[in-house]
Structure formats: structure tokens, C-alpha cells
Amino acid sequence: MDIRVVHGDITQQATDAIVVNLFEGVTRPGGATGAVDRALGGLISTLIAEGECKGKKGETVLLHTFGRLPAKRVLVVGLGKQQDFTLDTVRQVAAEACRFLKGKGIRRAATILHSAGIGGLAPHDSAMALTEGALLGTYAFTALKTSEKDETALETLEIVEADRGKIPEVQAGVEVGKILAEATALCRDLVNEPANRLTPTRLAEVAHTIATQHGLKLDILEREQCEALGMGAYLAVARGSHQPPKFIILSYQGDPAHPDRNLGLIGKGITFDSGGISLKPAERMEEMKGDMAGGAAVLCALKAVAALKVPLNATAIVPATENMPGGGATRPGDVVRAMNGKSIEVINTDAEGRMVLADALCYARQRLGLKRLVDVATLTGAIVVALGNLRAGLFTNNQALADQVLKAGERSGERFWQMPMDTEYRDLIKSEVADIRNTGTGRGAGSITGAYFIREFAEDTPWVHLDIAGTFLSDRETGYYVKGGTGFGVRTLVHLARILAEGKD
Ligand code: BES
Ligand code: ZN
Ligand code: ZN
Fold first, then answer.
1. pTM, entire model
2. Is 439 close to ligand 1, i.e. is its CB under 6 Å away?
3. Which of 239, 354, 437, 455 is catalytic?
4. What are the CA-CA distances from residue 41 to residues 24, 38, 45, 138, 242 (Å)?
5. Whose atoms come closest to the Cα of 448: which ligand?
6. What are the tens digits of pLDDT across the range 77-133?
7. Is 354 a catalytic residue?
8. Does the C-beta of 123 come closer than 6 Å to ligand 1?
9. How far is CA 5 from each of CA 123, 132, 169, 171, 386, rounded to the nearest angstrom?
10. CB 3.0–4.6 Å: which of 75, 101, 265, 499 could bond 106 by disulfide?
């Protein structure tokens, strides 16, 4: 979809459809919606009075103009209650509106900026959110369809701004929105790709493409190099698979004069999680092709950080491997040693995410000297029990960094919930035979024991862990999500990099 900013009056646009909006409870629309209403002889007011147009969030009412306006149609999109209106509402309603238009086979549309006026949002942010919503809401994964390709597309969306002075700001917002949406769409593609296509080797190739496109530094460590580094935890997971593991390191130098102003983004890169010898049940096992969603999120975030030229040094690390059962696979009861020398008793081979992250965190600190670490992982089913599909779990050893991630989440619209890390939880991963065991004793606090395990390898470095097991997939079309990968985490990480760059600490 081509998104363009034009100067003018929305009522004067000659296009297939113009999009205006309505807050819930408004009986006499004002602004652009009011002007359209007048041109249509009060049609919108009548529909409101009849209860057919309520302004509920995401509601879509399509009207034909019969020549009373240059545009053929008017789409009235509901913004919901004014007191609930946020930047994320803009993303959601833009997505609903564009998906609706696409469904009607409409190819060209023009829209106003939702609520730069009455809703009180900065034109830049509103334009950014509108762009993200329009692009992500019409996202489709079509790579593997041979026949029934999706023919309909909303090809052009014009954002019509009446105030010429605001155009540069709106234009800048659109550019940021495009970069964020493109990175998120790539992340969705990677999650949606089946594991026979998206192997660790292929993921490394994707990292290579990103590196070439944006002039980034890329290192891929092979199994032998990881062995030499003592990455016994990561390699224990890779042993059961015929696919070679790839330890991916992608670096962007946005502030070369200050090497210490850096951020390490570590993503779980399990291209398929069968559970290993602790084999998973068959039901919904296919979703485990997306167990590299954290890894995809950090690679795609770095792509956007580079495209936006954020003045901060950032490195994405993805320990990529399959987790498969096989003759060489790690067994429950095996003890392995991570790169920092800690011995790990493998109780359950399905708790593999924390194993690969352990060595990735050690590498980030010991080899790269990264000063702040954020890991993103589809780590535990337990976080889905705790938080469902709405919020991701956030865990930390450093409240200041956690607050910055939470602030980034407010900007992106991705929601998080901070989970407790009382020291007593550490007792649950004590081992009889090794330094630490890879699952808790008992069934309680599964996400916290996972986080505690990872924390052992962050040591004293400020660290935040994001458990996205409940948010990496959507089971339906809602707001700017469609069925399949959500790209969760990408936009928050980009905003985090921008926040850290602003802070200059
Ligand atoms: N990849 C899974 C977690 C997961 C579950 C992600 C559902 C997305 C949806 C992870 O590797 C796993 O299997 N975790 C185990 C840990 C347990 C063995 C301590 C789990 O959650 O059951
Ligand atoms: Zn697992
Ligand atoms: Zn897993």
C-alpha cells in the first residue's frame, strides 16, 4: 500500500472512498465529519439518531455519496469513547477501516488524521500510528499460496491534511510508521514461515540480508566456534537436530564515539520446538514453528533502528537451533556447563529457551561488553495462564531499565505486565547435583522460575526479560492483528532504543 500525505480538504477529494470518524455518544458530528454530514444532507446525523451509527471503536459504516461529494463513498469509522481514546486507538481503527475497504475491493481511499484536533494527539504521532495500523491491519502471509492469491488490495491511502504548516510533521510521522510496520511485517513473515523452510540456516540468511541492506555488521558462529566458547547450554539444545545451529550476532553502530552507550537485544531462536526428549503433545504443536518469534523480533527491531538512524549502539543476538528428539539429543538428567561456567541439570528438555538464552546472555556480557540487556522469548506456557493473550510478562533485575521498557510499550501500544522476582523464587531452581536446574520444583510460578534461570546468566548487568508466549500469535483478526504472527516486541524495542538514545546515559 502506498501511503501519501496531501494538502487539502477531505470533502473535496475525488477518490473511491473518504474516511472520517466519530466518537461514541456524539449526536452532531463536528470537524471533517460534520462537513461531510452537511454535504450529504445530514445523512450521518440521521444514522446516529436511528442508532445505526454509534461510533463504537472499530465500527464501520459505509455510505454512497451519489454525486453529492467528489468521492464515491464515505466510510465513517468509530473511535469509541473519547475518554478511552489513545494513540493505539488510531492504529486499531485505521486497521479496521483499511481492512474493511480492502474487503469491499476498494483500491483508492483518502483519510483524515484521526484526532489530531479533538483527541489531542500530536500530528506526527497520529500519522505514525495511522500508517502502522493501515499497513499491519491489511498484512497477509501469502508466500505459500499457489492459487487463491489475494487479488484485492487497498493500493493507495492518502492522508489529507488541511493545515499546510503541519504537513512536514505528518510526513515525518508517516515515514517512521512505515519503517516500524515494515519491520513488524517481516517479523510476522518469519513467525508464519513453517520450520521446514525457516531453519536456523535460513534465519541466518535473513540476518545477512538485513545486514547488507542497512550496512550492519554480521557474525554467524558455527557449532564448532560455540563449542570452543564453552556454550554447553545452547549446544545441549541443538544436539537432537540434523539442522546445524547458527548463533547470530547483528550489530548497528549508531553512536560510534561512545561504545558504552549500547543495548543488547537477545531473542530466543528456536525454529521448531518439539520439546526434545520431553516431547510435547501433538495438539497445536505446529504453533512451535513460531518459537523463534523473539529472535525474529530482535533482528527486525535492529533493522528499523538502523533505518531510523537511532544514535545508539545496538546488537541483536539470536541463538538459533531446532529442539528435536534424536539419538544424540540431550536427556533429562544430563548436566551441561554454560559459557560462564555454571553447571545446569536438565530436568526437562522442553525448557530449552532458557538454555539457549543463558549462553547468549553470557556472550553479550563477556564477549561484547553490552551494558543493558533485553531478552525476548516465547518462554513459558505459564505466562499464557497468568496474562492470556493481551499482555506479555516483564521481568527484571533493574527497575530503571524496566521503566524504560514500560515507557516504550506505552508508545508502541504493546502491553506488558511486570511480574515479581522475590529472591525466595530462586530456591525453586536449586539443583541437588549441579549449580542450577532448568525447571522449577512443583508446578507453580513457571514463568518466574524461567526468568530466574535466565537472570543467573545476566548476573549484575541491567536486564529485562520479556515473555511473549501469549502474544506472539493472534487467533483472529482484531485491530491491527490478523491471524498468525503478531510481530510483538519489534515496535517496543525500537521505541526503547530511541528512548535510551534520548537519555544519553
Ligand atoms: N516454547 C515453549 C513455550 C510456549 C508455550 C510458547 C506455548 C508458546 C506457546 C517453551 O519452550 C516450553 O516448552 N516451555 C515449557 C517449560 C516447562 C517445561 C518448564 C512450558 O511452558 O511448558
Ligand atoms: Zn520448549
Ligand atoms: Zn520453546
1. 0.98
2. yes
3. 354
4. 21, 5, 9, 32, 69
5. 1
6. 999 999 999 999 999 999 999 999 999 999 999 999 997 565 589 999 999 999 999
7. yes
8. no
9. 12, 14, 10, 6, 43
10. 101
Residues 6 or more apart whose CB falls under 8 angstroms from that of 108 comprise 15, 16, 17, 154, 155, 156, 158
Domain limits of the chain?
2-161, 182-503
Class of domain 2-161 as given by CATH: alpha beta
Strand-strand pairing, 313-323 and 108-111: unpaired
Residues, Cβ < 5 Å to ion ligand 2: 273, 350, 352
For residues 163 and 84, what is the distance between their CA atoms, to the nearest angstrom?
26
What confidence score (pLDDT) does residue 410 get? 98
User: How many CB atoms are closer than 10 A to CB 343?
Assistant: 15
- CATH number given to 182-503: 3.40.630.10
57 in active site: no
Grid coordinates belonging to 261: 552507550
Distance, in Å, from the CA atom of 494 to the CA atom of 308, rounded to the nearest integer, reads 9
Q: Is the CB of 469 under 6 A from ligand 1?
A: yes
Over residues 412-449, the pLDDT tens digits come to 999 999 999 999 999 999 999 999 999 999 889 999 99
Q: In what order do the strands lie in the sheet with 73-80?
A: 2-7, 156-161, 108-111, 17-23, 73-80, 60-64
Helix (H, G, I), strand (E, B) or coil at 272: strand
